[in-house]
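ok new one. same drill as before - structure tokens go in, u give me an amino acid for every spot. 160 of them this time. try not to just spam alanines like last time pls lmao
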């Protein structure tokens, strides 16, 4: 379990997702637009009245619901609506309660695709490969080093 935790801790910074807060007050969103990365989360916090976060059609911001889009349902003061955006896209949304949208309660989230850059390994040509002069010079692990790593691993399993 400790080894698994260590691997997870090492991988976490690579895929560190963020949580972005949007306040919903008086029929407006603050901030009104967000630029986030795929995998990030947006949390809309209702600070007054009843509000509903509803996805609208792509393109210019309108009050027209997007078929199959998200809809938080009505949320009240102190409640939040939380949504993870897993892939890159431009998402428009509105406050779907009453005349809030018609009065300007629209917003957008620009989700940038998260890219993973492969690690480039240098390639060697036959001309650049030289015969090793000793095992330590070539980067190979000696039998003594192998034994030492095995002992350390064995002890760590029982200690942790």
């Amino acid at each position: 379990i400790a080894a698994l935790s260590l691997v997870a801790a090492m991988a976490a910074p690579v895929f560190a997702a963020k949580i972005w807060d949007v306040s919903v007050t008086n029929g407006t969103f603050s901030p009104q637009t967000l630029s986030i990365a795929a995998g990030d989360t947006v949390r809309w916090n209702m600070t007054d009245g009843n509000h509903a976060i509803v996805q609208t059609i792509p393109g210019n911001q309108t009050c027209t619901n997007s078929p199959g889009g998200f809809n938080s349902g009505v949320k009240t003061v102190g409640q939040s609506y939380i949504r993870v955006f897993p892939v890159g896209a431009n998402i428009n949304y509105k406050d779907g309660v009453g005349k809030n949208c018609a009065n300007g309660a629209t917003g957008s989230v620009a989700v940038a695709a998260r890219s993973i850059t492969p690690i480039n390994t240098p390639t060697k040509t036959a001309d650049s490969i030289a015969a090793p002069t000793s095992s330590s010079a070539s980067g190979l692990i000696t039998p003594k080093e192998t034994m030492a790593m095995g002992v350390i691993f064995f002890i760590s399993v029982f200690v942790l």
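The beta strands are 19-25, 28-30, 33-37, 41-46, 53-56, 80-84, 89-95, 106-112. and btw The chain is about 20% helix and 30% strand.
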